[in-house]
Design brief:
The structure is a single chain. By secondary structure, the protein is mainly alpha-helical. The chain has three domains: 230 residues, Growth Hormone, Chain: A, CATH 1.20.1250.20; 74 residues, no CATH class; 204 residues, MFS general substrate transporter like domains (Growth Hormone, Chain: A), CATH 1.20.1250. Helix content is 63%, strand content 4%. It contains 26 helices and six strands. The strands form three sheets. It has a two-stranded antiparallel sheet. Strand 2 and strand 3 form a beta hairpin. Helix 10 runs antiparallel to helix 19.
Length: 533
């Protein structure tokens, strides 16, 4: 294909850079992006609550009437860090009579020299999670709660390459809508389950099938806009994911039962099936696949909606582009690895993506150690990403991507070094927030960069493959508390090492600012080596 003949970015300029049609599609896709955050519902369904042993000798006969905080609790239960040890209680010589017969339960009836495990529990609040409903209490079951999240990340690793291939082969829209509908059914279905094993199966299927929702919606949105609007659109889309997390937290806060929460966040998503009638397939994908007539119909619809006349010159460009791009329409992901330039670019992008995701979620894991309301803390930790993303937009708007990506990772590494060597104090939260802000900028920039340097023919496949490495980082992040228990300084040392190494790898990346999205492997390989007219 002659590069001066097929120029889709120029066609978008004539149709309206960000007209009414693009804005409508963008709003619809933003809702999908926000819904994709519901995959994090395990944060609330599997969270561990505070509970203590039910003391038959002192608590009411009806366990539902028992209170968590009682004046005699120190006399009957061993404590650690000002909290009762959840599954241990002191031995007693009292008969099982019930609280009303022993109004002054105290330590004289119990021996702090002997303890035993209990199998009934009184919870601090009325919030119900799978820990309570599936009886996953005590230390021997804690791994089952954390395993749900890690297993979800693993299922995404299995699902991302599959949905990426299906998306590049059969269309972004199909993968996105089917993924949303399937996630809605499986997510809501979890609320009716009564066993941990069945819950785990549904969680696995939901995250695997829905693993391509975010990337499919993101790619459709980015392929529809011109380079001048790419960064702004990417910023808004990522902010929508943060708002989706905040919405999830708000629903969890407002509902006492995890079952009710899942039904509220998932059942409305069935309406995404209506997108088949209101959302069109990516025009870039249609042209690359040689579906010229369908692409023409959509572009005429865009022109009509935007109030623009589609002239013959644009039609001619589409015809020529479709005829010449047929050879690229069947490019497979394996062709990328025949190009040494693209092969190294993919490897470096994958590592940087892993670093950004691991450190990003690692900071989230550290944030929950801050005292205060669980929901407020989580809300703050996700909403802080929004100003960080707008800072990212200001840094990237019309500016080079490489320096932003390199410096944000470098500063993150330096801040981790300060957290490592400086004594803890009031300024710790300030440095921590700066680090979260910088790594958010890095992650957001990677989304823009990866969408700009890979070809349309396999863009979603490579985007998904990079996301796989991100999910590996996501799987490792929950292990941070264990790492910190082994060595308190190890976590920040690891963060620092990975971010500094990534910042050096970025120096090998080509600059992608104001480049036209490449449609073939040869065009992608040429980025940074020659200017496309």
């Amino acid at each position: 294909m002659k590069e001066d003949e097929y120029d889709f970015d120029s066609i978008l300029q004539e149709l309206g850079t960000f007209g009414k049609y693009q804005r409508k599609n963008f709003v619809m896709l933003s809702v999908v992006i926000a819904f994709s955050a519901m995959s994090l519902s395990f944060v609330f369904t599997t969270r561990s609550s505070n509970y203590r042993c039910y003391i038959e000798e002192c608590d009411p006969i009806d366990i539902k009437e028992a209170k968590y905080n009682v004046p005699w609790l120190h006399d009957v239960t061993p404590f650690q860090h000002n909290h009762p040890i959840m599954c241990q209680r002191f031995e007693s010589s009292l008969p099982l009579t019930g609280y009303e017969f022993i109004p002054n339960c105290n330590g004289s009836y119990f021996s702090d020299e002997f303890t035993r495990k209990c199998d009934k529990f009184v919870f601090e609040n009325g919030d119900a999670t799978i820990e309570r409903d599936f009886n996953l209490t005590c230390s021997e079951n804690m791994w089952k709660l954390s395993f749900v999240g890690s297993m979800g990340d693993f299922s995404e690793i299995l699902g991302l390459p599959l949905v990426g291939y299906i998306s590049d082969r059969f269309g972004r829209r199909n993968v996105m809508i089917i993924g949303c509908a399937a996630s809605a059914l499986l997510g809501a279905g979890k609320s009716y389950l009564n066993s941990y094993e069945h819950f785990l199966i549904f969680e696995f299927l939901e995250t695997m099938i829905g693993s391509g929702i975010f990337s499919a919606a993101y790619v459709i949105a980015i392929e529809l806009v011109t380079p001048s609007h790419r960064v702004f659109c990417s910023t808004l889309l990522i902010c929508m994911f943060s708002l989706g997390e905040a919405y999830l937290c708000l629903i969890a806060w407002m509902t006492e039962s995890w079952r009710q929460m899942l039904r509220i966040i998932y059942f409305p998503a069935i309406l995404f099936l209506l997108y088949y009638y209101h959302l069109n397939e990516s025009v870039r994908w249609l042209l690359v696949k040689g579906k010229t007539q369908k692409a023409k119909q959509i572009l005429k619809k865009v022109a009509k909606t935007n109030g623009v006349t589609l002239n013959d010159r644009v039609i001619e460009k589409i015809n020529i582009g479709a005829d010449d791009v047929e050879d690229g329409s069947e490019e497979s992901i394996w062709k990328v690895f025949t190009s040494p330039i693209l092969c190294m670019r993919f490897i470096f992008c994958a590592f940087v993506w892993l670093t950004c995701t691991f450190v990003f979620y690692g900071f989230n894991m550290k944030s929950v150690t801050i005292s205060g309301n669980l929901y407020v803390n989580y809300m703050i930790s996700v909403l802080i990403e929004i100003p960080a993303n707008f800072i990212c937009y200001w840094l990237l708007d019309g500016k080079r991507r490489k320096p932003v990506l390199c410096w944000s990772l470098l500063i993150t590494g330096v801040l981790c070094f300060l957290l490592l060597v400086l004594p803890m104090g009031d300024y710790e939260i300030v440095i921590f927030s700066m680090g979260k802000c910088c790594i958010t900028i890095s992650l957001s920039t990677m989304y823009v960069y990866a969408a700009e340097v890979f070809p349309t023919s396999v863009r979603h496949s490579l985007f998904a493959c990079c996301s796989i490495f991100g999910r590996i980082g996501g799987m490792a992040a929950p292990q941070i508390p264990l790492m910190a228990a082994i060595s308190p300084s190890f976590v920040y040392t690891l963060f620092m090492s990975m971010t500094l190494l990534s910042s050096m790898l970025i120096l090998t990346f080509p600059e992608s600012v104001d480049t036209k999205l490449p449609d073939t492997v040869s065009q992608a390989a040429a980025i940074g080596h020659k200017t496309r007219e």
